[in-house]
Amino acid sequence: EILLTQSPGTLSLSPGDRAALSCRASQSVSAKYLAWYQQKSGQVPRLLIYGTTTRASGIPDRFSGSGSGTDFTLTISRLEPEDFAVYFCQQYVNLPYTFGQGTKLEI
Amino acid sequence: QVQLQQWGAGLLRPSDTLSLTCVVSGGSFDDYFWSWIRQSPEKGLEWIGEISPRGVTNYRPSLSSRLTMTVDRSQNRIFLRMTSMTADDIGLYYCARGGFSAVGKHVLQSGRDSFDSWGQGSLVTVSS
Q1: Are A92 and B120 inside 8 Å of each other by CB?
Q2: CB contact under 8 A, B113 and A50
Q3: Which of B27, B49, B71, B101 minimizes the number of CB atoms within 10 Å of its CB?
Q4: HEC profile for chain A?
Q5: Residue pLDDT, tens place only, A10-69
Q6: pLDDT tens digits, residue range A49-58?
Q7: B29-82 pLDDT, tens digit each
């Protein structure tokens, strides 16, 4: 199965900062098959981005995704207080679908 | 807007069988694959398996011998059955909507998509 490794484990930033979260795959993942989720404490994961770059419905444009091959990045251009949460990447090119272990974005 | 509501027994004893139900409303049930995903502090998010209303199933290989997923198209419901539960299976279990189940008349063999709608989660504990 494809292993996804996210870094850093925890990212400490302030509102207004720019955040860059990394997701590295153990083998090449077509850009069409990489997604990012946000999970706030006590809540269900929410789809942010799919196909590496496409924002899901209702997601603000401060969230953007990039990458190819084995290296992917979620960028939040200007952090808002509500953006502090845990972020997961997911690949769906191969079964079983797999998730990264998460990056906690904290103030 | 599609909504997923799930339920099932939350406290199990070792070797018990887990049974969960997820009902889908507000969307086209037949058009999608439906997955079960679990989450725990130790393992993070772990995809368990998926089923389409056309009866196609895909299971996580490490769990496949213990899993049965079924569907009731008349009631827009999907079911998860997992046998021989242990403490290693403790976590929050979600149902979620995946990719399309067919393209025209061509039945797809996997969802291969992100999960855009999730159930509220069911906490499963295993303890003697």
Answers
A1: no
A2: yes
A3: B27
A4: CCCEEEECCEEECCCCCCEEEEEEECCCCCHHHEEEEEECCCCCCEEEEECCCEECCCCCCCEEEEEECCEEEEEECCCCHHHCCEEEEEECCCCCCEECCCEEEEC
A5: 999 999 999 999 999 999 999 999 999 999 999 999 999 999 999 999 999 999 999 999
A6: 999 999 999 9
A7: 999 999 999 999 999 999 999 999 988 999 999 999 999 999 999 999 999 999
Cβ of B46 within 8 Å of Cβ of A44? The answer is no
User: Angle at the Cα of A55 (from B92 to A71), degrees rounded to 5?
Assistant: 80
- Closest CA of chain A from B72, distance in Å: 24
Which of B114, B117, B118, B123 to mutate to test binding with chain A, by most A CBs within 10 Å of its CB?
B114
